[in-house]
Amino acid sequence: MERYIVVVFKLILSFLLGGIVGYEREFKNRPAGLRTHVLVCLGATLVQIISIDYYKLNNLATIDPMRLGAQVISGIGFLGAGTILKEGVNIKGLTTAASIWAVACIGLAVGSGLYFEGIVTTLFIYFCLRWFKKIEKRIIAGKRYVVFKMIAKDQPGVIGEIASILGKRKINITNIELEKIDDYYVEIEISTNLLYMQNVNDIISILENVNGIETIKIKEE
Question: Beta strands of 81-197 (E only): which ranges?
């Protein structure tokens, strides 16, 4: 009877801890939200309960009770991959994928009876997801968002030369979009994060020398 109480307690705690992280992701409207995180945490907990209890009940000293848990860690990757989206040169969903993996680890900890470790880790994860975005924004507060819109000839090497020029000047490119205008010209839109010390006019002067670029306009925020 005592064993069943412990099992129920582990599952309830896993439900709550997975729900805390899942709530934050759901609140941010991420691809994997409350239900996904709760299910991952519960599933990982159950796997670890099965593994450890089977080991104890059958007195199998030759079997590694952590083997099933290790499969959870490696197998959870397919769920994380489903949350990762590529938009242009930007990749979104990595944080949510990491949170799913971390929740699986929490579930394994709870299933192993490491309640304190699971609870403290959950608090750290929630704090990271909830507040680190604001900290990141403060870190990059010395930067400004500038979009370069260019009309260029539709010929090989233009994008590569532009990226090379910006890269040499340590300019962070956040997105590149191309739109074909006609058979001869394309519109190139490059989003960047510039330090305030970096002069936009100097960058425009350099880009104007790139072979194939006809016009350059900027939008600054």
Answer: 85-87, 90-92, 143-153, 172-180, 185-195
- Token pair for residue 11? 């599952």
pTM: 0.58
Domain ranges of the chain: 2-113, 142-220
CA distance 22 to 15: 10
Output the CATH code of domain 142-220. 3.30.70.260
| Euclidean distance between CA atoms 152 and 158, whole angstroms | 8
At 197-210, the pLDDT tens digits run 677 788 888 888 88
Q: Look over the chain and give the mean of its residue pLDDT values, rounded to a whole number.
A: 80
Q: 3-state DSSP: the chain helix, strand, coil percent, rounded to 5?
A: 60, 20, 20
- Residues 174 and 191: beta-carbon distance below 8 Å: yes
